[in-house]
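Q: Hi! Curious about what Attachment p12 family protein looks like structurally. Here's the sequence.
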Amino acid sequence: MNFQIIIVLLIFAAALFYVGRMIYNSISAKKSCGSNCKCGVDFSNIEQTKSAK
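A: Let's find out. The predicted structure is below.
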């Protein structure tokens, strides 16, 4: 193979990896959203002390 073709294929593979990683990170679940909504907090081990009325 020509040396220029190898360089182009390596750059193309790196671009595919970069785009794939961006798509994976946008689709994968995050641990928390960064706001104050408590969506990433696990309350399963906390005992309830007040009764709900």
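A: A fun detail: The CA atoms of residues 15 and 21 lie 10 Å apart.
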